[in-house]
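just leaving the lab so this will be short. what follows is a protein written twice so to speak, once as letters and once as structure tokens for the fold. can you read through it and tell me how you think this chain folds. anything you notice is useful, everything is just below:
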Amino acid sequence: MANDSVIAPEAAKDIDDAYGWYEGQRPGLGEEFLGCVDAVIQAIGRMPELYSKVHKEYRRALVRRFPYAIFYEHIAETVMVYCVFHTSRNPQRWRRRLP
């Protein structure tokens, strides 16, 4: 059963920023990044409990091929994506984003 996915505005900005950076590195790479992020968000929607909890009730899914993690919470039938974060950044930054 698929869950509804809601992407927070901050997470959408994370995705846009990373897309711009990758597209600047090589045309088409940003599109590949978007495809990988979309695949993970779809997988989360299908099986939100699959990924491990990393902080309280928040879970993390890693993006294939790119050093990004998606932090989300599964509430009832909704998956709330709070941030799409580069894995080399300080973990305190993504924790501050969580409600």
The CA atoms of residues 68 and 86 lie 4 Å apart. The chain is about 40% helix and 30% strand. Strands lie at 4-7, 53-55, 58-62, 68-75, 78-86.
